[in-house]
Amino acid sequence: MKVIGLTGGIASGKSTVSRILREEFGIPIVDADQISRDVVAPGGAALERIAESFGSEYLMPEGGLDRKRMGALICEDPKAKNRLEGILHPIIEHHVENIIADYRARGMDLIVYDCPLLIEARQERFVDSVALVVTDIALRVQRLMERDGIAEDEARKKIAIQMSDDDKERYADFLISNDGDEEALREALSRLVMRWKNC
């Protein structure tokens, strides 16, 4: 079974790529974001350790992670971001390993592991190839402002705390440009899927 790691910076359009691959090409997606939401939902596997490390004020009254409060903290404090990732990544990796093993046991030929922090978390070891979604910074800023209802400086700050596309490109086997419309993206993905299936 071939496992393609799909990654890209915030507002690069990685989720759109993932959706097209799943809906139009029928490729199973292992979604790291969904797994990370599950482990910080009420009853999630990471909550106790987050409360121990950051304090119970970072949990919602119903028991899940207060994502807005935590997001504000890690935007301002890189050490807090590293601490949170140190809790979440091993738990997420355990889930990912189990899901990939299940697909392998079911005889799948090709799956995609959609993971924003694939490279930063050194999770490329789970995949055979890395596909990076790249998008012009100005377009990413615009998308973030519209999506999250935030000012330009906050959007740029969110982008700046992540690893740059230039640094990520050193790890990428495939680049997916997402500066155009969805139709252009769909056509590019169609060609890419054929390469994945044939190589």
TrEMBL record:
Assigned keywords, A-Z: ATP-binding, Coenzyme A biosynthesis, Cytoplasm, Kinase, Nucleotide-binding, Transferase
GO molecular function annotation: ATP binding; dephospho-CoA kinase activity
Binding site for ATP: 11-16
PROSITE patterns reported for this sequence: DPCK
Name of encoding gene: coaE
Family: Belongs to the CoaE family.
Broadest EC class assigned to this enzyme: transferase
Pfam families: CoaE
The EC number(s) this enzyme carries: 2.7.1.24
Family annotation (PANTHER family): BIFUNCTIONAL COENZYME A SYNTHASE-RELATED, DEPHOSPHO-COA KINASE-RELATED
Pathway: Cofactor biosynthesis; coenzyme A biosynthesis; CoA from (R)-pantothenate: step 5/5
GO cellular component: cytoplasm
Reactions catalysed: 3'-dephospho-CoA + ATP = ADP + CoA + H(+)
Top-rank taxon, per record: Bacteria
Subcellular location as annotated: Cytoplasm
NCBIfam families: dephospho-CoA kinase
Native species: Eubacterium aggregans
A single GO BP: coenzyme A biosynthetic process
InterPro entries per record: Depp_CoAkinase, P-loop_NTPase
Name under which the protein is recorded: Dephospho-CoA kinase
Stated role: Catalyzes the phosphorylation of the 3'-hydroxyl group of dephosphocoenzyme A to form coenzyme A.
